[in-house]
User: What shape does this take?
Amino acid sequence: MDYASAVKFVDIVSRFGDTTLRITPIRHPWDSETTDPAWDMQLTGPELDVSSRYLEDPAAPQTLVTFCEELAAEHKGWDGEKTWQSAGGDVQLSARHDQINTTILTATLTGGVVPRWTAISELHVDPLRFDRVAKNLALYGEEIYGDEYDENGTPERRDPRKIADEPFKRIGDPSPERWAQ
Assistant: This one.
């Protein structure tokens, strides 16, 4: 697949536990007039793999991109909690940062019709990471309405079971393959 037409995503990776929130901008599923993205989100960890599609809440005070921009702008820390949620509240992202060089992002994803499911995970993220997250989400969100958009493209999924089977990488070892023997 050509890179220009590849489905692009942003990963927010926790420093601990191999937990990742993958966000892929997609076209709105039924509103063909809007140029605002919807979001395909996948939350994965060693024993966790959930995903669904979520919409921006038009009545919300900020979008997902402006939420990430705010986290980036205040990378040195803030008091309390900052939150963003999707339309209907099926995704809620809560961020805390108490000036210890880590933003703690709690991701709560809910999906399904009957029965409903909910998955919650805490990600410990480098505060400076949100600058790239915000910029890439904005850029990729704009590109989904461009000429290069692949209508048959599907979000690329992480496979936590495959990741768990890969050789364990030791911190500080420049050659992790030597431990795979």
In short: Residues 7-180 form a domain with the Transcriptional Co-activator pc4; Chain A fold (CATH 2.30.31). The helical segments are 64-73, 129-143, 160-165. The first strand starts at residue 10 and ends at 13.
